[in-house]
Amino acid sequence: MMRSLYELTRTVREGAEDAARTVGLPVRPKPGATPRATVWQEGAMRLERIVPNHDVPRAGKTPVLLVPSLINRWYVLDLYPGGSLVKILRDAGLDVWVLDWGVANDEDRHRGWDDLALSISRAMAVVRRTTGAPQCVLLGYSISGTLSVIAAAREPERVAGLINLAGPIDFERSGMLQRLTDPRWFDVDAITRAGNVSPAQMLGGFLALRPTNILADVVKVADLHAQGRDEERDAVLALQGWAYDNVPFPAKAYADYVKALFQRNELVHGTHVVAGERVELERITAPLLTIVADRDSITPPASALALERFVASEDRSVLVVRGGHVSGVVNPSARERFHPQLCDWMIDRVTRADAVA
């Protein structure tokens, strides 16, 4: 049923875009438009360096690595020209890198959770080797926020600043998703036995959290267009296109993730092991910025904020944005409130790292 709903949603959206384009109505802006270059590739994964804006002075030498969510396309961070986080950071003079997880193939079904965490470490190594900087500022979004925290705990000396953008840490505070994955009725081995978790399956879980989202977005686009609020309309169109452009979740990694974190909450209990080593959150000493959205049903604020109880970082900040798991990051108001604060935090920590490099 969920696969049918997913395919129907994609078909309707693509058909509506074609029809709108034909009669001259607005369609979603082209995503991923900020110039970038691939520096390193491993399987489907690519490490991209954003081409700098030579019209602005460099903010510092220490690079910034952005790790978007594993289960959606990377371009949520470069969604449309008026709502591009990478463009905002680039135009602030930062050296911006993005880890694009790519699209998992059938042969990736055996990639485990450990492999994903180690991929971030390898990407950090490439960034350091290419730039000559001993550290980087690391930002992880959603599930990649969790993975980035793990990478920072394993290599604390390599991180000049850690930003957890809506990444769950305390999974007992994950709200409805935690209840949906309760082992009493959620058999993750049965779900992954056939291979990678499909986009339709992933979408089904998120639709269960807010089942009226599809209809609400259609109505919202029509209303904004009728009012002539073009920028807000484009933001919703861009977000709609991204939300249904899902990618598969590697089967073993999904099973590892659900069992270890949703069902056993190992990070909080101090029992989580990656590549044979226990993940000790107290090893994190880098400046920490935790960003939460006040209406986030995927990562409730309490889940992400739990990280503050465990790290040894003396420099700790919290930024609360208005909106949901994605809208709080990319909506037009984010450009006025959230993005400037994030830029200021990054530039300050880049400057500090440069001073001691």
Unreliable spans are: 1-6
Number of strands: 10
Report the average pLDDT across residues.
86
**Helix share, percent:** 40-55%
**Strand residue percentage:** 5-15%
CATH architecture: 3-Layer(aba) Sandwich
Distance between the termini: 55 Å
Give, in order, the helices and strands.
Answer: HEEEHEHEHEHHHHHHHEEEHEHHH
Q: Total domains, how many?
A: 1
Choose one word for the global shape.
globular
CATH class: Alpha Beta
Helix/strand class:
alpha/beta
Largest sheet: 8 strands, mixed
Query: Rounded to an integer, what's the Rg over CA atoms?
Result: 20 Å
Overview of the structural elements:
- This protein is α/β, with parallel strands linked by helices.
- Helices cover 45% and strands 14% of the residues.
- It has 15 helices and 10 strands.
- It has an 8-stranded mixed β-sheet with strand order 1-2-4-3-5-6-9-10, sandwiched between helices. Strands 7-8 form a two-stranded antiparallel sheet.
- α3 crosses α4 (143-154) and α8 runs antiparallel to α9 (230-243).
- The longest helix has 22 residues, at 2-23.
- The radius of gyration is 20 Å and the shape is globular.
- The protein starts with a helix and ends with a helix.
